């Protein structure tokens, strides 16, 4: 069986080596005669998986000692609620920088818990850029400021880290996690659902500065309190054991590939290739995002002639290039080119796009 190139936005492509390893170990994990899914999360062998996953993450992202790495379930959406629940403390105001679908969704959920002030909102302007630092209307008294460094649907990525002057900065890194280094000194908390660059769905990583833990009111469920996870090494209840195991394999793969700096270099190369193909198509393909703010992970593009979309998707699929349909909110196409997408996959897509434009242009 030959692998296709899968441009899904998430759940998304995983490294082939990871899938092969999981397949190899599925019936007989490390000579035990059972799989990793069939053992207690309290067993020494699974505790070792948890510890290795956390250790690899800490090393690969250079997470400082005073930041805790927490694993939980509930995805990005649960963090939309957990962030205000845990970070508001006695305050009642939070700033949200809205640059697309996901930062807006985070802001809407936060309204259930506090006054949300939009420090910027580029949605009406079409989500084609990120606001400049000077444009941000930040409240120095806010409990925290939230942004989404990479908007998965709109393909807009921050080219800088907002300066919040001491207000804890929170980042929804779901679709850019592990694609580039993180400047922890500038962030109080980052979170990411796993199903893009980190593993399967069912796992969410939260990396949080220690002093921001322990401020949730006791009226909230324990499961929504970061402290419960911090106090119990992320095993306050049963974690998504198989997802954690796959994430560990993904991190081992990333380390073997040269780590985050090397993967960032490749991500720059892959995304440049694709944007050059779009920009060099004499308008046959269009991406409206300002070049400095174009995502390295999610590349949305439209065909000048919308009537060709179905043909484009069908012909691409026939060339083993799949899951290229854009999100229903924006239409068009979207190629998600996460860490596990090899350069050869992007080259194949670019070759196909060129050929398709020649034939239909
Ligand atoms: N934030 C971002 C940036 C996302 O891309 C997604 C999912 N695509 C989410 C949040 C929501 O994640 P989940 O479906 O795990 O709740």
Distance between the termini: 34 Å
Task: Provide the structure class.
Answer: alpha/beta
Largest sheet geometry:
7 strands, mixed
By DSSP (H or I, 4+ residues per run), the number of helices equals 9
Strand numbers in spatial order across the main sheet: 2-10-9-8-5-3-4
Low-confidence stretches: none
Ions, cofactors and other bound molecules: 4'-deoxy-4'-aminopyridoxal-5'-phosphate
Strand content: 15-25%
What order do the SSEs take from the amino end to the carboxyl end, as H and E?
A: EHHEHEHEEEEEEEHHHEEHEEH
How many beta-strand segments?
A: 14
Round the Cα radius of gyration to an integer and report it: 21 Å
Overall geometry comes to globular
Helical content band: 25-40%
Could you tell me the mean pLDDT?
97
What would you note in describing this structure?
By secondary structure, the chain is α/β, with parallel strands linked by helices. The protein is 34% helix and 16% strand. It has helices at 16-25, 44-61, 75-87, 101-110, 226-231, 241-256, 259-279, 309-318, 343-360, and strands spanning 5-6, 67-72, 93-98, 115-121, 145-147, 150-151, 156-157, 169-172, 189-193, 204-209, 285-286, 298-303, 321-322, 333-336. The protein is globular, with a radius of gyration of 21 Å. 4'-deoxy-4'-aminopyridoxal-5'-phosphate (PMP) binds at residues 10, 75-77, 102, 148, 152, 172, 174-175, 193.
